[in-house]
Amino acid sequence: MYKRVLLKLSGESLMGEQNHGIDNKRLEEYAQQIKEITELGVQVGIVIGGGNIFRGLSGAAEGFDRYQGDQMGMLATVINSLALKSSLNNAGVKARVLTAIRMEPVGEFYSQPKAIEALDNGEVVILSAGTGNPYFTTDTGSSLRGIEIKADVMLKGTRVDGVYTADPEKDPTATKFDEITFDEIYNRGLKVMDLTATTMCKENNLPIIVFDMDTPGNLVRVIKGEKIGTLVKN
């Protein structure tokens, strides 16, 4: 069983059945799943995207300045992080939000020692605002934070149950990998995360498990070593 994990959640997943914003039912499901693994003694760091509120890249495509668009995206991740913290607290789980940009009293400014101390104290640590820099995605933010907090694995919770040869939502012939190497992902041009994030995980030997987080109970199954999702490793 893993001792410390970095859980990457997509902002879009928080929309649930809605087409924008935060679905409270989905948020509570996530909080319950996270609670289940903390009760097993697992230390949990979380990075959550902001695509349900604003995404810098799509903003840039619509005429926003990329620099400011990415800053707006970072703030969106902070809103999601506060929502998740609140939901975890309601479920009886201690959690704190650390931000990559100074914005006390909204969240504490991130530092690696502070994050590790909180994890060792049994708190769930939600690492928000990406890397604090534009032109980097929350995928890269989660790779960086996963490496910094010395996570055993990155768990990428998505709405798809693993990595496929093609997009299973578009190609019915797509087949799923149980395991795949970082090099194979490059060579096949598969979109697991952006290249910067994937390269960081490869170079720092941080494995990734891509799995379906939207099915309640899946997170604890991954933690217990059940073969669901896809393992990406060197």
Report on this structure:
This protein is of the alpha/beta class. It has a single domain (4-233), classed as Acetylglutamate kinase-like (Carbamate kinase). Helices cover 38% and strands 20% of the residues. The protein contains 8 helices and 11 strands. It has helices at 24-38, 56-61, 66-90, 112-120, 138-148, 182-188, 195-203, 218-223, and strands spanning 4-9, 43-48, 95-99, 108-109, 124-128, 153-158, 163-164, 176-177, 179-181, 208-212, 230-233. Strands 4-3-5-2-1-6-10-11-9 form a 9-stranded mixed beta sheet, with helices on both faces. Strand 1, helix 1 (24-38) and strand 2 (43-48) form a beta-alpha-beta unit. It is globular.
Q: The biggest beta sheet, please?
A: 9 strands, mixed
- Tell me what portion of residues adopts beta-strand conformation: 15-25%
What letter string, H or E per element, gives the SSE order? EHEHHEEHEHEEEEHHEHE
CATH-derived architecture:
3-Layer(aba) Sandwich
Shape: globular
How confident is the prediction overall: mean pLDDT?
94
Number of domains: 1
Can you tell me the CATH superfamily?
Answer: Acetylglutamate kinase-like
CATH class designation: Alpha Beta
In whole angstroms, how far apart are the ends?
Answer: 20 Å
The name of the CATH topology is Carbamate kinase
The number of strands is 11
Query: Approximately how much helix is present in the residues?
Result: 25-40%
What count of helical segments does DSSP give? Answer: 8
Low-confidence stretches: none
Strand order of the largest sheet: 4-3-5-2-1-6-10-11-9
Helix/strand class: alpha/beta
